[in-house]
## 1
Amino acid sequence: MPEECGCKEEKLPADEFSPEDWKKIDEVIEAHREKGLDDLLPVLHEVQKICGYLPASVQRRIAAGLDISPSTVYGVVTFYTLYYTKPQGKKCLRVCDSVTCYDRGSKELVAELENKLGIKPGETTKDGQLTLETVSCLGACDKAVVAMLDDETYYNLTAEQVSELVEEG
């Protein structure tokens, strides 16, 4: 079925999610079954809260439960940047790389983070604590460089400040 949706078959253990997790996933799907495609976004959001991400196995379960194609689910998951197809860190650091932030040093800031953390944007530290992402805009261009650590926004950042932020966070 992965070839139907465009997603790659995952090499994950069979017990990737607990029976309790699968039960919660099924309850979310059941609560939205009548609306099908119209409720896909809320289903994805709720299920990602349970699982932490949306692997192909979960996408297929959602597709079957809502009676929509796996390719539709995959297309939505991969279109929106806040849906994840692989495990994420316990914390997420998003650095704005819009034109304004780039001009004010986001490239250097990200380079500092790559050096300090040993990962590139889109990757998670080996200990699973932090995922680093770059995003196109955080809506605070007048306070560039801007970054978010989980739900907290930080403004006018320098490479040194973001390095301290990671150590504290």
Note: Residues 91-168 form a domain with the Glutaredoxin fold (CATH 3.40.30.10).
## 2
Amino acid sequence: MVISSAFFSFLTLMVPIRYIVIFFLGFLCSFEASASYTRGVPVAADSLILTDSSEVVLDSLVTYARTYLGTPYKYGGRGPERFDCSGYTSHVFTSVDVRLPFSSRAQIAHGMPVALDSVRKGDLLFFTSPRSGSNPGHVGIVTRVEQGKLYFIHSSSTRGVVEDPLKDHYRRRFIEARRILN
């Protein structure tokens, strides 16, 4: 997205900053200043970097995803009262203006593949299911990676929307991770 420097001429900052978040024409935009602060000097657009998947956007995605913890499962459910796994991921990504299809088999075609040891919050994890054979049959969203432990949120057919560590049952069924937000 290119925005003229005239648009930012009004930005006069008196305190140190790291991020400026602006809701502009329906898009959440995050900007990182190249300097830690300015004093009474307008900030030019060329000193800002537009990053749609900044930490702010990824945090927003995960925070929104967690608002549905405990929501019941329903096959084909697209929410917000009930979800299946892909209906849930599709619904959550609309909070950051990303449209995903309503099936895990279709969602795996989006974004870029990511090695499991390189995933970050906001990435999608794809799994087989008893009915899908070796094809994707389940999907979840990475919420955090801490000390080598990976956690993801998903709509489980038996427990509804839950946050789980990637271990045992799910690790055996893991197919691929995909990065939707670059």
Note: Helices lie at 55-66, 85-93, 104-107, 168-173.
## 3
Amino acid sequence: MIRGEERRIFRDYPILRKAEVVMIAGACRAGGALVRRSGFRSLHRLVSPLVQGASRVLPAILPEIPAGEIATRVRVAEVLSRTHENCLTNAYIAWSMMEARGIDASLRVGVRNAIGVVEAHAWVDVDGATVYDPGAQSPSFSAFDEDPLTILTRMGRAGSQSAGRRGRARSAE
């Protein structure tokens, strides 16, 4: 989807869906800042209890939303919040929203060597198909076999510093 398409989608959304997308956009911006400052573990500790609580409440009060629609809402929120450079945070938020809705989604993290520079990328799969992929880059990355949440929480603050500040790895976005 092109950026203008996301803006058109947002314009056509009903008011409550616009409010939801604005909240997602805020989560994308805040989550990105939290990851840069304190590492992925902090984001996971903040969001995980919210997802667990939402998974008990949401199915009873809101209609079912397919994974593709959740992915679209996060893509629209990316455009609003201008956070398309942070694929990990945005993919994590999309994955969390799908998990809260009872969708069996997989957060995927992969790497590639691009002319001597190791790049990382994150995306979300459902039933083996990619449903959320910032920048549509996942086919060019080799995904880790291990659960990305285990890898990322193990990295903690040190992982975010080595990836962002010292330049040993960079996001492909």
Note: Residues 3-171 form one domain.
## 4
Amino acid sequence: MPPFHRIPAMLAALALATALAGCSVSVVDGTSPSPDTSRQDPTPARETDPPSTAQGASDRASLIAAATRTVRCDGEYALMDDAIIVRVEGACDHVIVNASGSQLVIDDAALVEVIGSSNVVLAGTVQTVRVNGNANVVHWTGATPTVSDIGSANTLTAG
């Protein structure tokens, strides 16, 4: 085929591709409206951004109300799920947070260990706090525990 005969075919393909580029397809099952996915947030939140939850009793009540999971502690509790809000009821010997972007409300614990990053832990009385991750918030209401923080940009507060 001579090169001049390819030009109309290439122009037609280019015009078709340009026309279809603005189209979008969505599947609707009839149970709820589908979100508009054609627009994107210009600054999407990163999973490693520090949580925006401040410490305190009112935030504790808000997190408890927003909890997506409530569990009873039977000695040890390990949180391994990212981006979840968990309420842990009862006293724990050992609480491990090996997640990112999660929020945890606990009663009392002998040891709270945070290995992940960008988590919020609101606790009652704690004897020992160990933080190995980055950009975590750990807040307790009892006496100041023994604290070990080998991560960076962590906020560890009493009140």
Note: The longest helix spans residues 3-21.
